[in-house]
Predict the 3D structure of the following.
Amino acid sequence: MLTQIKGLHHVTSIASDAVRNNAFFTDALGLRRVKKTVNFDSPDVYHLYYGDEQGTPGTVMTHFPFARAARGRPGTGEVGETVFAVPQGSLDFWADRLADRAEDLARVDHFGESRLSFRSDDGEAFALSESADDNRDPWTGNGVGADHAIRGFRGATMRLADTGAMAELLTFMGYQKSDTRDGVTRYVIEGGNPADTIDLAQASGVREAQQGAGSVHHIAFAVEDRAAQLAVRRALTDTGHAVTPVIDRDYFWAIYFRTPGGVLFEIATNEPGFDRDEDTAHLGEALKLPSQHEHLRSALEGHLQPLG
Ligand code: ZN
């Protein structure tokens, strides 16, 4: 069993419109945009990162807004819901705030937690989960005060045709089964950041998801540093997973592998972080380009929509 994994690092999804995406995550959800950069493989598409003040691992939601991308079709083999932690007693505030800005708002009880589930304008499924013991400092710079603001991720739910192989993989990664209710099994990892929960929803007889706008592209797990990442890579390779080489993503190092149930996993380092190339006070303001795309700057500045 691995001991290096410390909860979630980030979740990356596909969106259809950069301006709407930016408005939803900053104005509606109150997160801080911590990086405005481009997709390494499609530099004409933004890669937008939203999180707490520093973009601390375990708080970072990221999007690739492909203009006019067709909406994905929910199904099996994907992250079905991404869950943020909010303070106890804050769901009335959120239900009010999101009433006109999100779809399908619903109050639910999930493993004894009060949640507000909703969909973004792209149909992406999220939930806010009341959490009494989350001591993370929230970002309050976008009009949501500390009494209500998102603390970061609580976890995510994966929807799978057969949860068996994923349960085995999560256990290998250091997660422990904690509870099962209504076909959903909860896995929790100790000793990491507060984004420590993965729920596996068994969805037999449900068709496979088709990726598009509103779909999670991949889910990333945190490791402290590159040494820990190499140890995880070795262990995954030794157990038969086809893992990519280490890739420099400027703000972290990444490895990726496709899991048996279809979900794309990434293992990302907590180093070097989002203040690598701009001051914490100004994170997310300037367009930052990977060095190999720097020569495209003037073309990209003309092409990419201004976000404000
Ligand atoms: Zn990633």
